Amino acid sequence: MTNTNNDSAYSPDQVGQLALAQIEHYQRHPGWKTGYSNLDAVMNPMRPGQLIPVLGNTNNFKSGFMGGVCQNVAAQVGDDQVVIYVSWEDSVESVGIKNLAAYSRIPVTAMVRGALDDGQWRRLRRAAVERARQPLWLIGHTNTQFRRRERLTLRDVWRMLDYLVDMEKKQIALVALDYLQRIRPHTPGDRRNQMMQIVDLATDMAIAFGTPVMLGTQAGRQVLERRWKLPQMHDAQETSNIEQSASAFLSLYMPAKTHAVGSVIEIAGQQVTVTKDLLIVALLKQKDGPAPHYFLFRIDFATNKLHPVDFRVSENGTEQAEPWWQR
User: Fold this and answer.
1) Fewer CB within a 10 Å sphere, N or C end of the chain?
2) Domains of the chain: which residue ranges?
3) CB 278 within 8 A of CB 298
4) Domain 34-249: CATH class, spelled out
């Protein structure tokens, strides 16, 4: 359809036709699910051009959550589509070990300690073959490079994505950047402006490559001084434009990090018992969808996997089944 007015003005008829065309596109290309049934029941699919921040304090399972979503999306993609996980913190080997733990059900601790028997080695090798079939690429540093680790800028990552698209003929299905405050700035200036520019470039990357981009980000320590310690959108450390740029915004919180196991906390009016493996995932914002909503998960620390709990709550009402901690 041609815009007969100019490049920016559209008639009422054109607006209706463009809207219908977009809805038809959504039907043909439904987007990617996170792979977690409770979250996917409320969260809209991840679509090209979207920036999706994942916020949390240190050691609150940001990397585990993002890695799990990447593995789940990798199981959904078609031929010549790939998922990209970029880490500025963990080595390729460390991320790979967590991947193998998820496939083999062998605890990460057993691998790290080198305490594997012959049967576990057979399972591990089968898991490595299965991992090799998954279109999940890693970008980062490796322990085999015995030299000073060079932190990548987002422009470095952009060039690598260009190579995959132009030379390897791959289509980028999802990019996960882990995490914002560890990304090397690509411009001089004060820290806040550098972080804002990285957020802008991550959004540009989502649009340029026609892919959703998940951006892990650290929460400020002021969160820990509050009674309700789940980070909010304005708590993203050293950047103020991330909440405006986001199409959806997720926040993670492990209550056992700040409360005694067995104590009770309240989530939007509902009482929840704190356990060591409890993770709260909050959908704080989503365009064209309801928010906020809160979801519960159990973390399998041995294999670095998440298991949804059949319970969810929003600030506008409650939907819940029998919670697992009462079974």
Assistant:
1) C
2) 34-249
3) yes
4) alpha beta
